[in-house]
Amino acid sequence: xxxxxxxxxxxxxxNNFRKWEIKPLEYDEQIKFIENWYxxxxxxxxxxLVSKIREYPEILSVGSSPFYLSLICALHxxxxxxxxxxxxxxxxxVDGILGQWDNFRLIARKSILKEFSINQRKIIASNMAAxxxxxxxxxxxxxxxxxxxxxxxxxxxxxxxxPDEEKLVISLYNDFSIITKQSPSLYSYSHLSIQEYLTAIxx
Length: 203
Prior knowledge:
Blueprint: H1 27-38, H2 43-55, H3 66-77, H4 86-104, H5 118-135, E1 139-140, H6 142-148, H7 152-158, H8 165-174, E2 179-183, E3 186-189, H9 192-202
Antiparallel strand pairs: 1-3, 2-3
């Protein structure tokens, strides 16, 4: 099996494969997903979220895929508001990934970006996302960012010298998991929707 959420991103033709399109999850499937997500964590929390959804079913308007449903569940589990618009949902997710969830759980993470605010970390991540978008890259190397020289503009914006591109990428990968490693030298954002959102707010 070869599963891809965005077929237009594929560069190579796949011959002799039968193609199927996965439809958005329906209401009953969304509820079942949430119940399963919470089954080994907190059934009471799961029931609470399902109860809120039954009262405000519009919450699920952005939960047509497992990715967005997982965001809704994670936000609710951590006591954060569940938003109805996808861009707000992703915004809360990005804030959470870049430090808000650590603050909520009183975790002091050792990171080269520990002195930077969540908003500054978001600016760094959005700058990188927009640079890669301009290059047409979903998977990238550290050298792709070095050659673009785009992070230099942030040194003046923050009035401080940023760590180099390699240290930034490794921190966003190891410390915050907003970037994932595809191979020893290849990276990508943890989800394409996050890269698209970060690019949009930068533009």
